[in-house]
Amino acid sequence: MIVNENKAHQSLSLHKGWNTLLEAASISLGLNDSLETSNKPAAHQDRYHLFDIRKKLYRLFEHSQDRYLPIKIAERVNPLTFGSYSLTLWTAPDLETLLKLAAKYSAVISAPIRLRYHTTPQGDAELWVVNNEPLYKETHISYMGATLFIVTFSKILKEITANDKLKIQIQMVLNYFDDSAQKEYELRTKIKITTGHPIRKICIPKRHLYQSLPSSEPDIHFTALSLLRKEAEKIEKDDLILKIYNVLGETDCLFNLTGKGLAAKLNMNIRTLNRHLSNYHTSYRGVVEKYKMERALYLLENTDENMTEITYQLGFTDLSTFSRAFKRWTGQSPTNIRTNKTFKLEI
Fold this sequence. Notes:
- By secondary structure, this protein is an alpha+beta fold.
- It has 16 helices and seven strands.
- Helix 8 links the parallel strand 5 (169-171) and strand 6 (192-194).
- Helix 1 runs parallel beside helix 3, helix 5 runs antiparallel to helix 6 (95-104) and helix 5 (84-90) packs antiparallel against helix 9 (218-236).
């Protein structure tokens, strides 16, 4: 299924570069004949549907039975794999600029999985890896997809910086692999991986952020970035989940927020809103819960606002209700997150 201009599918579209990487992996593993699809994009089309890429990844994994498959797929990424997106990153002046642009325009390579750029109180950079799927509904194959995304992006960072001393830490929520597999992932990718975190993150120490990049090319970067902005604008203008996030982000306090009120700001009623969101396999409540979780994590980790104020901002009636919801979302208490916010990367 090739993604067209249908608005209902913009939030589920992926750059065709992911298909290119999967096809290359299929060939290298001698599986191309069994995985080839007749649904190839026309010359002018650059997007695939999430479910098609997920299906191909699943079939590739089933045929290979290789738990290190994401590493092998990511090995073939290059400056042109994701068009203007990857070329913009490869020609960026420094790592901080690269990370900010990667997050700002991440919808171009993957609308369903997004990057959000944050800095810690210590100045370290974090790329939060978030998706559109409702909380508690991740499957093994969606986990594999998120792992492929993270491994591929980490490979891009390693290739661009050409710096063996670049220290990257990946924070994962769950670990579908055993300890030996995790250690092998670390050995092969030269990245430290930890699990048990409330959200996926790619973490870079402050000391690396302002170093010039060897592949920096100002003229090419300017041209690629101009093309990238246009691509992102096409994708984001019909992205309903992004529009909801923008409305929520402009709301100082979510206490009086209602589904009807949010739908009205989007010029529709709540039934229409939920009908559209069902195309993305989520709902108004699912999107709002995801937003509240991300907002709570940001406030707890990056500000000194007290728990009562955070509780009110997020629309909860009291601290105990917020604490229960937060623990349901993340498996951790807000107090634990706040206590550990001074954590410094040791990589």
